[in-house]
Design a protein that fits this description.
globular, Rossmann fold, 13 helices, seven-stranded parallel β-sheet, about 300 residues, 9 strands, alpha/beta, two-stranded parallel ribbon
């Protein structure tokens, strides 16, 4: 396997790049960044609703129908792909998500795709208290077993989620969490740009590629940063898990979602999001955005 940090991105010669989930925020942004690096004729997007991808068609990008839940649609959607970027399924049930990913990987093999890329997560690990970590780890095993060259884009935890994971601290002066630990809060926009660079490298990145911010602050450290930014004292308070769950449900959060988020805090407490890697900054040619950047912006 090639070293992540030692490879210099190259400019991709004419080839076909197929991007799934392009009407979503992550892979949609990846397509925009790809257009800065390769001709539109070398890009195809596969989406569940082609009408929502009209902006891509108007710019000369092929728009194809493809749905992980419709296996028959996928071989044609993936046809001719020298590289195929699979977005992780937006499915809360872990078993169903893995089944959808398995369908997509099998279709990629059928279509004769040259390289599979997948939007994974830095916390990918079997047995993690954070549900998606299990899905990503299992999917990476599917990639490895596919027989195709593959790249797993292990994105850090998206920094924009701080706007709701830290709660209404601007009004209360308190960040209340059921568990604390370091998290390498990573800009989704930075991850999307890095994915475009990797796609345009012509297969230079093999296996896992960890894409995180350069630091991993705890919630206590975020409270200190918030205090510096606002000039007001902001505290971080760790409360009992049952107390936190009851509070979230009382304020209108779905009980299943509250349980899902609790898994995030548990994994953070165990250090599951603590890792940082210089690769993202290397790909971008600049320092990645930070949690401080998010906290400095108005909520909303």
């Amino acid at each position: 396997m090639k070293s992540e940090s030692s490879i210099s991105p190259q400019i991709l010669e004419s080839t076909m790049l197929v991007i799934t989930g392009a009407t979503g925020a992550l892979n949609g942004a990846t397509v925009e960044h790809l257009l800065e690096r390769v001709p539109a004729r070398d890009i195809a997007v596969t989406v569940r609703d082609v009408a929502k991808a009209e902006r891509f068609a108007q710019r000369g990008i092929q728009v194809r129908h493809g749905d992980y839940a419709d296996p028959a649609s996928l071989p044609r959607a993936f046809a001719g792909a020298d590289q195929l970027l699979l977005v992780s399924a937006n499915e809360p049930d872990s078993d169903k998500a893995v089944a959808l990913h398995r369908t997509a990987v099998e279709a990629a093999v059928t279509a004769g795709v040259g390289r599979l890329l997948y939007t994974s997560h830095q916390a990918a690990a079997l047995g993690s208290p954070f549900g998606p970590a299990h899905v990503h780890a299992t999917t990476e095993h599917l990639l490895a077993d596919s027989g195709l060259p593959w790249t797993a884009l292990r994105n850090g935890f998206y920094a924009h989620s701080l706007n709701w994971l830290t709660g209404p601290w601007r009004e209360t002066g308190v960040i209340t969490v059921p568990g604390d630990g370091p998290v390498s809060w990573t800009s989704r926009e930075d991850a999307a740009e890095a994915a475009a660079v990797i796609l345009a490298s012509g297969g230079a990145y093999d296996g896992p590629a960890t894409l995180t911010a350069s630091t991993a602050p705890t919630f206590e450290e975020l409270a200190e940063t918030a205090s510096e930014l606002t000039g007001n004292t902001v505290k971080s308070v760790v409360v009992d898990e049952d107390e936190w769950l009851a509070s979230q449900v009382a304020h209108g959060m779905d009980e299943r979602m509250a349980g899902f988020l609790l898994g995030f805090y548990r994994n953070a407490r165990q250090g599951g999001f603590a890792g940082t890697d210089p690769l993202l900054g290397t790909l971008l040619g600049r320092e990645p955005r930070t949690a401080r950047d998010v906290l400095s912006q108005p909520a909303g």
